Amino acid sequence: MDAAEAKKKFKAYLSSQQLKYTRQRKAIADVFFDQNRHLSLTEIHTLARQQHPSTGFATVYRTMKLMAESGLASEHKFAEGQARYEPAGDHHDHLICVRCGKIVEFEDHEIEDIQDRLARQYGFKVVGHRHEIYGDCLTPDCPEQHREQETDVVALGLADLRSRD
Asked: 14 and 38 in contact (C-beta within 8 Å)?
């Protein structure tokens, strides 16, 4: 679904819940659906304030919860516990750099098959899973390293795994 359709569905969802599509919620929806990456509440707040300066953090928090409830956004709490959001879509897994915080989405049917086989082997039926791989991205002079980072490798217990530069 494209950004315009997602915004239209969010507006309809709010209406069905007897909630208003305010200018602040519009700014949040614009920022969220127009980005192509996992955004923290802080990042959404900063970007939404550029469009509508009176947008408060609590409004961002409540709006993103509404988007998740509506099925239009997926909330992820990677190991550091910070909520990040992405537009809802097909299942995928994540590679996360412990140095720069870069997040890469990937799909691998072989991994999915192995997970299903292991679940059957141990008497489980898979109803969902979360697969995160933490490591160092190998991008020379990674542009992600130059933005404020919210991935806390110490909280992840991965600080000792960082590459030594």
From this structure: no
- Strands 132-135, 93-97: pairing is parallel
Architecture of domain 3-87: Orthogonal Bundle (1.10)
- The distance of Cα 135 from the centroid of its chain, to the nearest Å, equals 18
Secondary structure E strands in the chain: 39-40, 73-77, 83-87, 93-97, 103-106, 132-135
3-state helix, strand, coil in the chain (%, to 5): 45, 15, 40
* Strand ordering across the sheet containing 83-87: 39-40, 83-87, 73-77
38 or 78: which leads in pLDDT: 38
Q: Where in the chain is the domain with CATH 3.30.1490.190?
A: 93-161
The domain covering 93-161 belongs, at the CATH homologous superfamily level, to: Ferric-uptake regulator, C-terminal dimerisarion domain (3.30.1490.190)
Q: What is the pLDDT of residues 143-155, one digit of tens each?
A: 666 555 545 545 5
Matching residue, tokens 């691998």: 108
pTM for the complete prediction? 0.62
Residues with Cβ within 8 Å of residue 1, at least 6 apart in sequence: 9, 87, 89
